[in-house]
Amino acid sequence: MAVTGSVFVAFLLFHMAGNLKVYLPDAELHFNEYAHWLRGFLNPLLPGSSFLWAFRAVIALCLVLHVYAGTTIFFRARVARGGFGRAITAKWHALTGRTMIWTGLIILCFIIFHLLDLTVGAKGVASKSFSGKATYTLEDGEVVTNAYQNLIGSFERPAVAAFYIITMVLIAIHLSHGIWSIINDFGGTASRTRSVFLVLAGLIALVIVIGNASIPLAVLAGVIS
Ligand code: HEM
After folding, report:
1. DSSP H or E run through 209
2. Is residue 123 part of a domain?
């Protein structure tokens, strides 16, 4: 869980940095340039979009292993407790720990929705403006997918924007416990180390929720369009 979880934390920070390009002046150009760069990363060293596909394979493998390990831990813990429930404590850290399986399952549903919405452009999930054919011409004349307009079109739907925002909060809750657990699993169990990483985990989660959730909010508020 710790190894695959670390991959996700790195991915989320990287993905958020790319998403924040929507705030740059001339955002449509910068965002589409970035999406295009990502598809052809390490080209011509590697042919076409082969890096992207290798990257997708690693993320998919990590997801399968993470979900498998998470459900195994969940059921093992139930067996270990016998007929007893978990100790009820109002401490934030205990609450986030208890809800890991549920926040995790909602995040899994979100990922499926998100891929159908912004990567595949599936009918009935993606916005009407996403046809998979919406294009943008870069400064060098190359015609690419208009990832920026797909994103704006998606978040202009209030229910979808609300789903993204709520999920970002759940991701932050999941991460605040997950990052702290990663450090413990890697052996950082001294009480000072634990305290430092408890704060650090909260900070990273906060950065990710603010950075990401601000985007659907900004679209809804008409700040970016
Ligand atoms: C509000 C927050 C988010 C925004 C605005 C956003 C935006 C996007 C966009 C525009 C794409 C398509 C890029 C393209 O077509 O080139 C994408 C792809 C993707 N996003 Fe997000 N995303 C957000 C949050 C997340 C979160 C929280 C996760 C993971 C839990 C995630 C996982 C992915 C994955 C796996 C892909 C597919 C990458 C690929 O294989 O091409 N995203 N996202």
Report:
1. helix 191-220
2. yes
